[in-house]
Amino acid sequence: MPFWKRSGAREDAGFDPSFRFETSWVLPPVVLFAIRALLGLYAFVTLFTIFGWNGSHGMSVESRHSFSYFTNLTYWGLAFYYVFGALHTCSYLITGTPFLARWPRVLQVAHSMFYSTIVVYPWIVTAVYWALLAPSDGFPSIFATWSNSSQHALNAAYALFEILFPRTEPLPFLHLVPIVLLLALYLGLAYLTHATEGFYVYDFLDLDKHSDGIVAAYIVGILVGSIIVFLIVRYVIMLRVWITEKKLGKSGKFRRGTRVGDEEHGKSIPLHSMSGK
């Protein structure tokens, strides 16, 4: 059951009543905002620097083709999530009411699902790349080393930060549906790219090199791996909530001088930006 309707929460409490997406159990809102903003900026700088490099080295076609790669799509997702996460935290810090709280419910739920994708997909990208796709003899240049490390290693660090530091609750099981559905849609995009552009985005999807059974095994393996990663992330977040809130009593770092009704625990807690409870 989604956390905003779980047992103990009032039906009229609304979406994310204690601002879990915008606050941290250990970082003051201003620090959480700054980190999210910097990481979002770095991700966008990485993406556009790669575009610039490709354009200046006669490889503009690589930039156009980049939108067919799951790696790039998930990295764009990280960039946008971190920017929007920073904006939500900043608006909470300034006004006491984050933008997210003012959005229509459908967009709030979409943001929650978006969060689930950005803490699950980067692990899949990193595992598949380094296990199946990374060049065995190293990268040809410093730029290639940096760009691939940013997109296939630091992406996991982005996911880990959002798992450990905000006050988000465990991923609802219902979010497995968009996780699997988006993977299925991407598979369709991969083969649509082959049909329209004449190349396979990933070698393990190449039906000219591999039998149908081998390709199917890769697809099913990634699907099963995604479900396993989802479950691991869910229970790591559950462990974080249990340790920080139940054992350490860290209700969260909130905006100074305001109070928030913590509907999830049926109490009102004083909010001090440097307080742990």
Automatic annotation (TrEMBL):
Keywords: Membrane, Transmembrane, Transmembrane helix. It comes from the Eukaryota. Residues 253-277 are annotated as: Disordered. The keyword Cell cycle does not apply. One of its GO terms (cellular component) is membrane. The chain crosses the membrane at residues 30-53, 73-101, 113-132, 138-161, 173-193, 213-237. The keyword Lipid metabolism does not apply. Coiled coil: none annotated. This is FAR-17a/AIG1-like protein. It comes from Lentithecium fluviatile CBS 122367. The lineage of its organism: Eukaryota, Fungi, Dikarya, Ascomycota, Pezizomycotina.
